[in-house]
Design a protein that fits this description.
- This protein is an alpha+beta fold.
- The protein has a 6-stranded antiparallel sheet with strand order 1-2-3-4-6-5.
- A hairpin with a 6-residue loop joins strand 3 and strand 4.
């Protein structure tokens, strides 16, 4: 074991140790201030990166997301891509894109993504950690649903089903 006599050097080592702890380098699953793990943040970033082009509704339609003529208050207009409903969860491949009308304009803005998995069995695996909220939609569609408000703040929480900011 090495002993350091110089107080300045000892202080420098403590600064380095504190910086490592604050960065999360000391633990692999340390939660960030918002309660999400670093892995969850990476997955959310992948979802944002994969869906950024869908701010343009025409691009979403060109890539196979169809208007299913469904508007739900608190969620918005739904664009659905049936070919992605395969029972697996991939943050970069949401099955549903949610759009809300822009007040005073005649256009829609992308507000959230939704993942769906056919019902049957236990709650699906989703984002890393335990913050995501899967909902069983038995009454309408027979699907597990997980909404992620990655493009519009939801004061109730990122993974809450309904957003009071969407009329």
């Amino acid at each position: 074991m090495m002993t350091i006599q110089n107080g300045t050097t000892r202080f420098g080592i403590w600064v380095c140790v504190a910086a490592l702890c604050a960065s999360g380098a000391g633990t692999h699953a340390q939660s960030r201030r918002d309660g999400f793990t670093a892995a969850t943040h990476r997955e959310l970033a992948a979802a944002r990166s994969a869906t950024a082009k869908y701010h343009d509704v025409a691009q979403a339609e060109a890539d196979g997301y169809v208007d299913i003529d469904l508007y739900i208050s608190g969620e918005g207009f739904h664009r659905f891509k049936a070919s992605l409903v395969d029972g697996t969860f991939d943050p970069a491949k949401p099955q549903v894109l949610l759009y809300a009308p822009v007040p005073g304009e005649s256009r829609l803005q992308l507000v959230a993504v939704e993942y769906v998995v056919p019902l049957g069995g236990d709650r699906p695996a989703g984002f890393s950690g335990s913050a995501d909220v899967w909902r069983e939609d038995v009454e309408n569609f027979g699907l597990w649903e997980l909404t992620a408000w990655i493009w519009e703040h939801n004061p109730k929480g990122l993974f809450e089903h309904l957003n009071p900011r969407v009329p």
